């Protein structure tokens, strides 16, 4: 069936990246962070999955890889998944980009290059 009316189309999937990332979430007024799975991400929001309890309209912050902390609001909830509408648009391609290993203490150990520089004078001869 051909649709001619643009209003009938579902525009929710436009510009949305399906992916699997982890992110930290902070709830407004509550100390501590909770780890969630990012199921999809767009410039204006994301779908998260996790065991945390949220309510619609709750102020929330999300720490996205290569982007940092983003303010948002819980837009919807379904089972253990919930949608977050960002206060300001982000560039979702940044979150998909590899983490740059700079040797910085904030870079996770498993992402860093194992050996930055080998000094031949420090090698043990066998």
Question: Could you walk me through the main structural features you see in this protein, from its secondary elements to its overall organization?
Answer:
- The protein has 126 residues and is mainly beta.
- The chain has a domain at 14-96: Thrombin, subunit H (Beta Barrel), CATH 2.40.10.
- Helices cover 4% and strands 37% of the residues.
- It has one helix and six strands, in the order ββββββα.
- The protein has a six-stranded antiparallel barrel.
- It is elongated, with a radius of gyration of 20 Å.
- Mean pLDDT is 79; it is low at 1-11.
Assign the structural class, choosing from mainly alpha, mainly beta, alpha/beta, alpha+beta, or little secondary structure.
Answer: mainly beta
**Unreliable sequence segments:** 1-11
Largest sheet: 6 strands, antiparallel, barrel
Shape designation: elongated
- Mean pLDDT across the residues is 79
Strand order of the largest sheet: 1-2-3-6-5-4
Specify the CATH architecture of the domain at 14-96: Beta Barrel
Rg: 20 Å
**Order of helices and strands, N to C?**
EEEEEEH
CATH hierarchy class name of the domain at 14-96: Mainly Beta
Strand content: 35-45%
CATH superfamily caption of the domain at 14-96: predicted glycosyltransferase like domains
Strand runs, count? 6
CATH topology description of the domain at 14-96: Thrombin, subunit H
Distance between the ends: 74 Å
Helicity, as a percent range: under 10%
> What is the number of helices?
1
């Amino acid at each position: 069936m051909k649709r001619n009316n643009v209003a009938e189309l579902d525009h929710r999937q436009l510009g949305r990246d399906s992916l699997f990332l982890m992110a930290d979430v902070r709830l407004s007024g509550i100390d501590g962070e909770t780890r969630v799975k990012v199921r999809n991400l767009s410039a204006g929001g994301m779908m998260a999955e996790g065991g945390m309890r949220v309510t619609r309209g709750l102020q929330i912050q999300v720490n996205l890889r290569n982007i940092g902390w983003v303010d948002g609001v819980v837009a919807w909830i379904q089972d253990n998944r919930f949608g977050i509408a960002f206060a300001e648009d982000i560039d979702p391609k940044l979150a998909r980009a590899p983490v740059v290993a700079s040797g910085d203490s904030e870079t996770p150990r498993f992402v860093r290059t194992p050996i930055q520089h080998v000094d031949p004078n420090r090698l043990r001869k066998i």
